[in-house]
């Protein structure tokens, strides 16, 4: 059972969803999707959002059957102790890998944009230590922080709005240049960028209220993130010509670098500072998920101690891939794994629990 | 029983034909009262019951000699009659009160100009006079095993959350120390997180401030011998409120609040941002400004962080010296330290002009906070942030700020979140935090002390307006 003092409200779930989803993807998403879908990239994002919504529905249907249990608690109920435990540890490894990926991508971007000379371990230590400091707290405290920093997303939108001063709408036409097939394929990139919502598997029982309300909050969060992403991609599309787009790996800060105001000459640094916080929340999310899994197995459900070594594992893992190829390799592994863990397995779990009529005993919420 | 002390006086008279001994501490008792209320009647009457003869309002029979000695130490007179098993304790305490003046460190432009003083009874009177309500409850405690300091907690019985009262009671009872020098001791014994740089209970010398918090369902703690009241639980934002805000028009009040928050950010971040900009991200500034700053920096051999530390330390020195010195000399220190040194240090090429500007601005901003305690915390916090900025530039500032925000989110004051209503976010309570909405809009008490009644206004406060419109 979840302690009363760590429960969160549905409003908080909405913000948790946003903070978990919005993250590292913002930077390179326009470039990646544009490479496939051309002018229709922003449509790809919307399609990706719908796919994610379907996944959220599956997870919700699954969690609804075990309203007071986290995934780590109910998988053994569906599959028995051993197979369930196997799945759980696979998930813990997946969460740690996701956390590592966030760290690696974050570091490589900081390296590229702000500090080419600062050693990797130092920047990584900063984000890991700060995150640990928050994640050792209860989910309620973590979420309070998430809600507070969500103000920054408004700032991001405000900064990005400046793009309309140099926009050229002809760049994005014809929208269906690449064809609908490619636009659908483009959403492939998006459903990886929108990751983070799988926290629902673990966080669901922490949320107060009825199942319908939880679904609404989670969906609203996903809708918000999807719209934010497609807004940013849209802006990148109208600022850069298709030729430029193909050459710029991180269009959003690149675009901001071009703006200059009387007071602040380089807006991209401001953007990167805000973005740093948003990335940290993504990392914190995975740290919490993995630590929660370890906590369930080794610390009687208390994730506090597990946070320390989970963070150290992800820190050490993040130090390994030094070259761009290494990063690319890790990205590939994680994105394939995410298809299985986020989009595939929950469906399987749901089907099995439906077929064998497994659900939490006692009253159903 | 009482170790020989020179201020112990005794007087023997004959009463009922027996010896009668009056003991009192000269330093604590009012000799005039002893003469008028004890000696005169006793010598006059010669016969009867002691309790009837003594004309003081407060005469108590005491069988335990040990307690009688304790009473003696408090300034009460002890009467011992020959051949009697009991003694009589008469309240003859003297009080030397400072006048009720406005506290120096919490001045307001408009509003009440009285403050708490060292005498607990007078302080309680000041609160009771403001809230003439039978629900106002005072509870006495004695803390400090040796000093036996008397403290009182005050709350509104019908507003304050019973759990909170119980928690405060529990924490006071668990204090077991010899010395309670001032409320700061109690504060540290009772705080949720004593390691935090942020004070978790508000201390004030203003009765009007204490009263406002009482009416929000909080608990006020007063202690004998100190003019500071502790208010708990509080939020970070309570430190940024001043009674003055409510004496001005609400537009002005809101404006002043915003200035204070800007000052919070400036005091906390400005030196760090400056260091980050000049050492890492000069490109953030417009080109013309970069040239000026570079020209000024070129003469300085030290890295910006050293410059900053030098100036900040100088400033803290001037501040500290200014407090310790008598006020006429204090002003001289300000002028010599501020003007002469500031100028000379730049001419000598130790510090750049821009750094002097930054440090001066930071200093002024940090003094804007209405609470001295909070202003010290903020000034203290900017040093780690400066170090972070000198090592990691903007990234360091972001993580440093994030760590402070996380700390604030985690912090609780008597179990209620310290950073409310920002985290947990409560838009309803924002009316009296960063903003100062019109008073008739603030019809609900803030949520953080969990008051028993949320509503504090009926809808009728401005009913006259609707009534007037109806007549037209």
Structure description:
The complex is a heterodimer of chains A (365) and B (472). Chain A is mainly alpha-helical. Chain A contains 16 helices and no strands. Chain A has helices at 10-21, 25-37, 41-64, 71-79, 81-113, 120-135, 139-149, 151-161, 180-193, 200-203, 211-239, 242-247, 251-258, 267-298, 304-319, 324-355. The longest helix of chain A is centred in the N-terminal third of the chain and has 33 residues, at 81-113. The radius of gyration of chain A is 20 Å and the shape is globular. By secondary structure, chain B is of the alpha+beta class. Chain B contains 14 helices and 12 strands. Chain B has a 5-stranded antiparallel beta sheet with strand order 1-2-4-5-3, with helices on both faces. In chain B, helix 10 runs antiparallel to helix 11 (327-347) and helix 10 (304-324) packs across helix 13 (372-410). The longest helix of chain B is centred in the last third of the chain and has 39 residues, at 372-410. The mean pLDDT of chain B is 85. The chains are: A mainly alpha (365), B alpha+beta (472). The A-B interface holds A 12, 110, 114-115, 118, 122-123, 126-127, 130, 133-134, 137, 141, 144-145, 147-149, 260, 262-266, 269, 272-273, 276-277, 280 and B 280-281, 283-287, 391-399, 402-403, 405-407, 409-410, 417, 419, 422-425. Chain A: Its main location: membrane. Chain A: It comes from Polycladomyces zharkentensis. Chain A: Pfam families: Spore_permease (PF03845).
């Amino acid at each position: 059972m979840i302690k009363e003092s760590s429960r969160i409200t549905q409003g908080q779930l909405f913000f948790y969803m946003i903070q978990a989803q919005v993250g590292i993807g913002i930077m390179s998403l326009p470039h990646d999707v544009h490479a496939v879908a051309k002018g229709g990239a922003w449509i790809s994002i919307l399609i990706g959002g719908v796919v994610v919504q379907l996944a959220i529905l599956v997870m919700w249907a699954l969690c609804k059957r075990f309203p007071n249990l986290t995934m780590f608690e109910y998988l053994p109920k569906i599959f028995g102790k051993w197979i369930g435990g196997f799945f759980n540890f696979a998930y813990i490894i997946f969460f740690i890998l996701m956390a590592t990926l966030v760290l690696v991508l974050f570091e490589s971007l900081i390296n590229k944009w702000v500090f080419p000379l600062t050693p990797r371990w130092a920047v990584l230590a900063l984000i890991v230590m700060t995150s640990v400091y928050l994640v050792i707290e209860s989910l309620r405290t973590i979420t309070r922080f998430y809600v507070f920093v969500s103000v920054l997303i408004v700032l991001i939108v405000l900064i990005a709005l400046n793009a309309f001063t140099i926009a050229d709408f002809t760049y994005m036409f014809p929208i269906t240049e690449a064809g609908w097939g490619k636009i659908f394929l483009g959403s492939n990139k998006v459903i990886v960028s929108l990751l983070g919502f799988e926290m629902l598997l673990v966080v669901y029982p922490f949320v107060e209220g009825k199942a319908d309300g939880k679904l609404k909050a989670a969906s609203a969060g996903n809708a918000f993130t999807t719209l934010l992403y497609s807004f940013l991609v849209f802006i990148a599309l109208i600022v850069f010509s298709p030729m430029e787009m193909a050459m710029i790996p991180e269009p959003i800060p690149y675009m901001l670098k071009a703006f200059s105001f009387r007071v602040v000459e380089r807006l991209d640094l401001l953007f990167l500072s805000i973005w740093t916080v948003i990335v940290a929340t993504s990392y914190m999310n995975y740290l919490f998920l993995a630590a929660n899994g370890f906590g369930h197995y080794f610390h009687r459900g208390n994730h506090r101690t597990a946070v320390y070594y989970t963070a150290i594992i992800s820190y050490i893992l993040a130090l390994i891939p030094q070259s761009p190829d290494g990063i690319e390799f890790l990205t590939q592994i994680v994105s394939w794994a995410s298809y299985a863990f986020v989009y595939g397995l929950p469906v399987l779990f749901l089907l099995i629990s439906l077929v064998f009529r497994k659900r939490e005993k006692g009253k159903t919420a | 029983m009482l170790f020989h002390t020179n201020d112990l006086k005794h007087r023997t008279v004959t009463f009922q034909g027996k010896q009668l001994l009056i003991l009192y501490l000269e330093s604590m008792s009012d000799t005039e009262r002893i003469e008028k209320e004890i000696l005169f009647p006793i010598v006059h009457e010669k016969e009867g019951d002691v309790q009837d003869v003594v004309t003081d309002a407060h005469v108590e029979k005491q069988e335990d000699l040990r307690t009688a000695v304790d009473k003696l130490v408090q300034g009460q007179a002890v009467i011992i009659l020959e051949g009697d098993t009991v003694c009589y304790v008469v309240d003859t305490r003297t009080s030397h009160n400072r006048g009720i003046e406005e506290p120096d460190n919490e001045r307001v432009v408009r509003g009440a100009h009285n403050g708490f003083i060292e005498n607990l009874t007078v302080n309680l009177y000041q609160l009771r006079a403001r809230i003439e309500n039978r629900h106002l409850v005072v509870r006495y405690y004695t803390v400090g095993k040796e000093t036996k300091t008397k403290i009182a907690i005050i709350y509104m019985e019908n507003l304050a959350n019973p759990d909170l009262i119980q928690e405060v009671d529990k924490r006071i009872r668990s204090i077991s120390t010899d010395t309670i020098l001032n409320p700061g001791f109690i504060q540290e014994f009772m705080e949720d997180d004593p390691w935090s740089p942020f004070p978790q209970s508000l201390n004030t010398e203003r009765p009007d401030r204490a009263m406002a918090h009482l009416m929000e369902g909080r608990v006020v703690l007063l202690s004998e011998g100190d003019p500071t009241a502790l208010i708990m639980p509080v939020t970070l934002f309570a430190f940024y409120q001043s009674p003055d805000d409510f004496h001005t028009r609400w537009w002005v009040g809101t404006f002043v609040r915003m200035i204070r928050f800007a000052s919070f950010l400036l005091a906390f971040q400005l030196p760090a941002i400056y260091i980050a900009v000049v050492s890492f991200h000069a490109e953030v500034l417009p080109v013309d400004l970069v040239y000026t700053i570079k020209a000024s920096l070129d003469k300085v051999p030290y890295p910006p962080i050293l410059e900053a530390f030098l100036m900040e330390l100088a400033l803290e020195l001037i501040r500290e010296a200014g407090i310790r010195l008598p006020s006429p000399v204090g002003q001289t220190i300000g002028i010599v330290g501020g003007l002469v040194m500031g100028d000379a240090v730049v001419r000598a090429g130790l510090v750049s002009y821009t750094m002097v500007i930054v440090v001066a601005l930071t200093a002024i901003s940090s003094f804007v906070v209405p609470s001295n305690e909070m202003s010290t915390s903020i000034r203290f916090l900017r040093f780690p942030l400066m170090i972070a900025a000198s090592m990691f530039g903007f990234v360091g500032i972001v993580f440093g700020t994030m760590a402070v925000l996380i700390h604030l989110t985690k912090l609780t004051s008597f179990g209620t979140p310290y950073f409310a209503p920002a985290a947990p976010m409560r838009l309803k309570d924002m009316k009296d935090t960063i903003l100062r909405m019109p008073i008739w809009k603030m019809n609900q008490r803030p949520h953080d002390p969990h008051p028993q009644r949320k509503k504090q206004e009926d809808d009728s406060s401005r009913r006259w307006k609707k009534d007037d419109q109806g007549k037209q």
